[in-house]
Amino acid sequence: MRGGNRRMWWRVVWAVSLMMALSACGDDDQPLVESDPDNARPDCRECQILFIGSSYLSYYGNDLVDIFNAFAAEAGKPVYAEKRSIGGYRLYRHIASEGTLAKIRERNWDYIILQGNAAFLSREEWHPMIIPYLIEFRQIIKENNPQTCVIYMMPWAYKNGLLSIPGGEMDYQEMQTALYNETIRVVNENDIATAPVGWAWYTAIVNGYEGDLYLTDNNHQSASGAYLAASVFYSTIFQEEAPDIPFSWGEGDNPPYLRAIADSLVRNFPDLWNLY
Question: What are the extents of the domains in the chain?
């Protein structure tokens, strides 16, 4: 292992160790749901994948699904991937949308990836705006095809946390910690997998990544932010590091580093992400 990769690996271990310690500080009286797991990753030769979400999947050309498809094409993996992304649409709006429900029923999807609102998950008083709909989505998806693997995208925190939102009172690190804790709790209680996108961003940021993962609104993904998120999706689904692809990079960006962070987090800690 090269010196730079070794340093990166230990930084990832440090980040996950911190994450596990933070989780241990959460509520002790929330038992996991006792049920037979039925959300295993499928062994699909030509995976059919549906992404459901908002502008955090595609914004000003920074499209996570397009980059994911480019990774798959470069690796020679036949996939059929679609997205149902509408700006401003939270999960509670998607679940009331006949267009979204029809898209779910359109195929026996191998994977359906749900992207929810970061602010709603970070504060307990806002949980009713997201958690019940995530659980309901799982039920709807499994009714369509019991073999579909449901994945929730762990959100990234906003660059300035919730400090600009009335009642937010969380900086970046506090928000990302809350997002990690709640994501892990919800996915384990309801047998949903997670793609640890938010924690991949956190790992890059706390280790001084010189590129900017955010656009100037400090919320949405830049090109490199979308690239890192797509790398996490690729490693989550295919259990290997995403390949190098032609890409337009900004100052300070380091694509091999981003792909390595994504792959190390996903594949070395599958139990954390409920991937089986």
Answer: 34-268
E strand residue ranges, 7-110: 47-53, 58-59, 62-63, 79-85
- Tell me the pTM: 0.89
Written as six digits, the tokens of 65 are 């699904």
Contact of 222 with 197, CB cutoff 8 Å = no
Assign domain 34-268 to its CATH superfamily: SGNH hydrolase (3.40.50.1110)
Spell out the per-residue pLDDT of the chain, length 276, in tens: 444 444 444 455 445 545 544 444 444 434 344 457 899 999 999 999 999 999 999 999 999 999 999 999 999 999 999 999 999 999 999 999 999 999 999 999 999 999 999 999 999 999 999 999 999 999 999 999 999 999 999 999 999 999 988 878 899 999 999 999 999 999 999 999 999 999 999 999 999 999 999 999 999 999 999 999 999 999 999 999 999 999 998 889 999 999 999 999 999 999 999 999
